[in-house]
Write a structure and sequence with these properties.
The protein is an alpha/beta fold. The chain has 3 domains: 3-162, Thiamin diphosphate (ThDP)-binding fold, Pyr/PP domains (Rossmann fold, 3-Layer(aba) Sandwich), CATH 3.40.50; 183-339, 3-Layer(aba) Sandwich (Rossmann fold), CATH 3.40.50.1220; 346-536, Thiamin diphosphate (ThDP)-binding fold, Pyr/PP domains (Rossmann fold, 3-Layer(aba) Sandwich). The chain is built from 22 helices and 18 strands. It has a 6-stranded parallel beta sheet, with helices on both faces. It has a 6-stranded parallel beta sheet with strand order 9-8-7-10-11-12, with helices on both faces. Helix 10 (210-223) links the parallel strand 7 and strand 8 (227-229).
């Protein structure tokens, strides 16, 4: 068969459902092969958005999302999405085209060494130099993308290789099981838990796996040990649980940090160094148990004394089977922290001021998205408000990026979520700055006939940087811009545009949009004027009094 046909058959063999991207002339053989495949091509308006969609597909399914571009500028547009997937631990495979490598008459036109460009951004990057190598290259790229720790991989398929004839066939995946933790390590961890007086559980990004979620829920129910989540660990355990102390959305000084400081043992499950540390260790300080697929990456603020290395779900199950709740455990201070945090989260949730107050915004979205709805957050100061104040009921219902923390991913991520879960309510929540970085994908969403709600939180500025600027005592300078009329902008793409003019209109409008088909874009003016006072001053002052 033709090599491009073999490439597509190899992808089908891996269970690939979608390829997101923008083909170029160097991909035309592959595009022709795709036209006869059950794999669906999702044509996007920018390669970066295609990469974000593929990465989010991987995040939600555990299977590698696949995206495609041409050579040169198309391939370089994947750089941000490669970093997004790699830092965020999302399985993704990129396919890029290239000019013929055996004979070429175009010199260096559009040619960039994409394989080497991708090397520091991926787990695996290769140029395919023979059609006969396609089965092994595809199998290895998918395997590397999906195995712990998941991330980005890349294959370059030159134009002349894609057109070759080959007799090879796809390779089947091998049966593989992750190793389990050694019994002595588990017993050592259990002994520390039994001896502690104020143990606390911290749930991080690598714990966000289906089986791990179930085991952690059982562990919390059995032991009664309170827990904290990082931003990318949100929803691993239901945050309505009365043992939930809060989310480490801020770097320090929040209520949740007071609980961590009080702990004499931290059971750190799924810690990933790509996130801002939820706590800082000091020599002679708190004991830390590191539970993860891999041993700890030691740095000046993280050097755990005990490590339980292996499949996380199995490690937690083994620990649960051996831990007995202890009569000397004292969680009274943690309960004070939880009560004070809950009281603060509810402040401002009924505030009618306009533009909309962040606490009111988060509360209204929580009210109408229901327990199984999915919100996909772009990157901005609102992400902190949602991480702190929006309780996630289950895993991957709050899609945020606390790794690369890139702008422009919110809308494509929401679109991918809707493709994976068409029956669920999905809301993209974007700042006006982040939205405009990939706003052209509204056309893609309309063309795909997605039922999607997009909130544009409009403050006509780069609000996150304004917050930092104010906190550092600098003058307000250089961060304001103009915006289009977002209602007309949405309508120009065939979406439906709405504008909120009173705070009380937001929740009913989101509910109304969920009840209708199509893409709905809601312009929501927001008031960030008190971010510095609340997030940097008030929270620290209140939490210090506990």
């Amino acid at each position: 068969m033709k090599a491009s046909d073999l490439f597509v058959r190899s992808l089908e063999n891996e269970g690939v459902e979608y390829i997101f991207g923008i083909p170029g002339e160097e991909n035309l053989d592959l595009l022709d092969s795709l036209s006869r495949s059950r794999i669906k091509l999702v044509l996007t308006r920018h390669e970066q958005a295609a990469g974000f969609m593929a990465a989010t597909y991987g995040r939600l399914t555990g299977k590698a999302g696949v995206c495609m571009s041409t050579l040169g500028p198309g391939a370089t547009n994947f750089v941000t999405s490669a970093a997004y997937a790699q830092l965020g631990g999302m399985p993704m495979m990129m396919i890029t085209g290239q000019k013929p490598i055996k004979t070429s008459k175009q010199g260096q036109f559009q040619i960039v060494d994409i394989v080497d460009t991708m090397r520091p951004l991926t787990k695996y990057t290769q140029q395919i130099v023979s059609g006969n190598n396609i089965p092994s290259r595809v199998r290895e790229a998918i395997r590397r993308a999906e195995e712990e720790r998941p991330g980005a991989t890349h294959l370059e398929l030159p134009e002349d290789i894609a057109a070759e004839e080959t007799d090879e066939l796809p390779l089947a995946a091998s049966l593989a099981r992750r190793p389990t933790a050694e019994d002595k390590a588990v017993r050592a961890a259990v002994e520390l838990i039994h001896k502690s007086k104020h143990p606390v559980l911290v749930v991080g990004a690598a714990a966000n796996r289906k089986l791990t979620c179930r085991m952690l829920r059982d562990f919390v129910a059995h032991t009664g040990i309170p827990f904290v989540t990082t931003q990318m660990g949100k929803g691993v355990v239901d945050e309505r649980d009365d043992k939930f102390l809060g989310n480490a959305a801020l770097s320090a000084g929040d209520f949740v940090h007071r609980a961590i400081e009080h702990a004499d043992l931290i059971i750190n499950v799924g810690h990933d160094v790509i996130e801002k540390p939820p706590f800082f260790m000091q020599a002679g300080g708190v004991q830390v148990i590191h539970v993860n697929f891999f041993s700890a990456q030691v740095d000046p603020v993280y050097f755990p004394q005990t490590e339980v290395i292996g499949d996380i779900a199995n490690s937690i199950w083994q620990m649960k089977e051996q831990v007995d709740p202890q009569s000397h455990w004292d969680f009274s201070y943690f309960e004070k922290v939880r009560t004070a945090g809950e009281a603060h989260y509810h402040q401002g949730t009924e505030d009618d001021r306009f533009p909309v107050y962040p606490q009111r915004l988060v509360a209204d979205v929580r009210r109408v998205t229901e327990g199984k709805g999915i919100i996909a957050l772009d990157n901005g100061v609102y992400k902190i408000w949602f991480a702190r104040n929006y309780k996630a009921h289950s895993p991957n219902t709050v899609l945020l990026d606390n790794a690369l923390a890139t702008m422009g991913a919110g809308l494509p991520s929401a679109m991918a979520a809707k493709l994976v879960f068409p029956e669920r309510q999905v809301v993209a929540i974007c700042g006006d700055g982040g939205f405009m970085m990939n706003s052209q994908e509204l056309e893609t969403a309309v063309r795909l006939d997605l039922d999607l709600v997009v909130l544009i939180l409009r403050d006509d500025a780069y609000g996150m940087i304004k917050w930092k600027q104010a906190h550092m005592g600098f003058d307000d300078f250089g961060l304001d811009y103009g915006n289009p009329d977002f209602v007309k902008y949405a309508e120009s793409y065939g979406a439906q545009g709405h504008r909120v003019e009173r705070a009380q209109e937001l929740a009913p409008l989101i509910t109304e949009c969920h009840g209708k088909s199509g893409v709905h874009v809601i312009d929501v003016p927001v008031d960030y004027s008190e971010n510095d006072r609340i997030l940097n001053q008030e929270i620290q002052e209140l939490s210090q009094k506990l």
